[in-house]
Specification:
Helix content: 40-55%
Number of strands: 2
Largest sheet: 2 strands, parallel
Family: Belongs to the HMG-CoA lyase family.
Structural class: mainly alpha
Protein name: Isopropylmalate/homocitrate/citramalate synthase
Pfam family, one: HMGL-like
Keywords: Lyase, Metal-binding
Strand content: 5-15%
Order of helices and strands: HEHEHHHH
InterPro entries: Aldolase_TIM, HMGL, PYR_CT
């Protein structure tokens, strides 16, 4: 990523990751270390590539927001509201495959919504 950023500077670089083998958020942290500050994710990890058998979809927005907030980035997103929206989407798409650790396990009791997301 560092080489890509250097090659296209001053253009911003955004990353789009899939979570096929459960390493999507590891890729986010590696990209953060290289200086990337924009990421594409999808609610509940929906999406993916129809040409990649077994592909599990994109990185999950809720998990990505939670990770970024825990690392000290103010995303401006309200992860609690994202999870609530996800529950609605689940009811609209019965039988669809959803992913995401935050929706499965819940937010830690110590989690605090950032000031900008609460506004």
């Amino acid at each position: 990523m560092g080489a890509v950023i250097a090659a296209v500077r001053p253009l911003p670089v955004a990353c789009h990751f899939h979570d096929t083998r459960g390493l999507g958020l590891a890729n986010v942290t590696a990209a953060l270390d290289a200086g990337v500050r924009a990421f594409d994710a999808s609610l509940a990890g929906l999406g993916g590539c129809p040409f990649a058998p077994g592909a599990t979809g994109n990185i999950d927005t809720e998990d990505t927001v939670f990770l970024l907030e825990q690392l000290g980035f103010d995303t401006g997103a309200d992860v609690e509201r994202l999870v609530a929206l996800r529950r609605e989407v689940e009811s609209w798409l019965p039988g669809e495959r959803f992913s995401g650790a935050i929706a499965r396990a819940g937010l830690p009791k110590t989690f605090r919504v950032s000031a900008s997301a609460a506004a």
